[in-house]
Amino acid sequence: MTKEIIDYTYNNKNKISDAEAEFFFKNYYQDRGMRKWQGFFLSDHKKGLRGMEKEKKTRPVIKEQQSLELITQKLKMSYEHKKIVVIQLVHITSDNEVTELSGIIRGFNENKIYLTDEEEVLHVIELEEIKNCCSGK
Q1: In this structure, what DSSP letter does residue 35 have?
Q2: Phi, psi of 88 (to 5 degrees)
Q3: How many CB atoms lie within 10 A of CB 43?
Q4: How many other C-beta atoms are found inside a 10 Å radius of the C-beta of residue 75?
């Protein structure tokens, strides 16, 4: 702001004309736009929004149903070579979300397989529950 406008404001309180105010806003005032509202977001809100964005990105894609023969072949290869396998289960929630398990096949028994995930949690999965199977990362 220029010295003349500041002096005029202090010396003549509440006596600024509309033309003077318009001149001030047109030539001197800089609106900060959306930046002025960022202080209203709490850190919890920001964390929640980031979590929602991350969840959308990591949501698994629903894959097509594979034949039982193909599934058993891929599971056998994973078991023999101790490679990571990604298994998508048949069950789909009402939100169109699917369950995917990733890990190494530790064994099998009749119609069940035993898979340990990255946290070394053992999952017992029925072959009929498996929709899709592919090699992992």
Answers
A1: G
A2: -105, 130
A3: 7
A4: 20
Alpha-carbon gap, residue 110 to 80, rounded angstroms:
17
Read off the pLDDT band of 132 (50, 70, 90).
very high
- Quote the pLDDT of residue 86: 94
- pLDDT tens for 4-57 read 555 555 555 667 888 888 888 888 877 766 666 666 666 667 777 777 776 665
Is residue 29 packed enough to be buried (19+ CB in 10 Å), middle (13-18) or exposed (0-12)?
exposed
Q: With 0-12 CB in 10 A as exposed, 13-18 as middle and 19+ as buried, what is 96? A: exposed
Contact residues for 132 (Cβ-Cβ < 8 A; gap 6+)? 63, 64, 65, 66, 71, 87, 88
Question: Quick check: 100 and 88 in contact, CB under 8 A?
Answer: yes
Q: Please state, in angstroms and rounded to a whole number, the distance separating the CA atoms of residues 99 and 101.
A: 7
Q: Count the neighbouring beta carbons within 10 Å of the beta carbon of residue 71.
A: 19
The single residue listed with the structure tokens 């990255």 is 118
